[in-house]
Amino acid sequence: MSRKPLAVALVHHPVIDRAGDRVTTAVTNLDLHDIARASRTFGVDRFYVVTPVAEQQALVEKILGHWREGFGAGYNPHRGDALGLVRQVNSLDEALADWSAAAGETARPVLTGAGRKDGIPSAECRGLMARHPLLLVFGTGWGLAPELFDRGWTVLEPIRGAGEYNHLSVRSAVAIILDRLLGT
């Protein structure tokens, strides 16, 4: 099945913490590397890192610089290739606007959340991918803030495991969802 362009966004703000408070989380090196690698593996066109914090943005640039132009570029060119998908933005709205411009038409956000009781199945999302450029939105911390779900955007059904326990790392969740949507 052919598809329209697809991007992933990893949101560090606004998200919630374990108490349900609205917070900004820290960028992690592992998230950047692993999500970029999964995105590259499955043919995602762009990976947005969403944080308004200047110090966190500087950390992202330092990591990217090391693997794109620094020692890491020669040491492991595959890593630099994957990290070439990364774009840093201040907000999810900025990511959506940038992705819509890059895709050449209005992109549709698709939100994710382990605690959701709603959401469309992966098969329906694959149908959306055939008709619209999508921005798959993942939250850090304990998930995306409620105000993002209040925007009326499409939600993807959560990943369900074998039992009640459902607390995957965001890196694992991205890989599983990309496999469900784009794997053979």
UniProtKB/TrEMBL annotation:
Domain tRNA (guanine-N(1)-)-methyltransferase C-terminal residues, every copy: 6-183
Domain of life the protein comes from: Bacteria
Residue stretches spanning the membrane: none
Name of this protein: tRNA (guanine-N(1)-)-methyltransferase C-terminal domain-containing protein
Species the sequence originates in: Desulfuromonas versatilis
Organism phylogeny: Bacteria, Pseudomonadati, Thermodesulfobacteriota, Desulfuromonadia, Desulfuromonadales
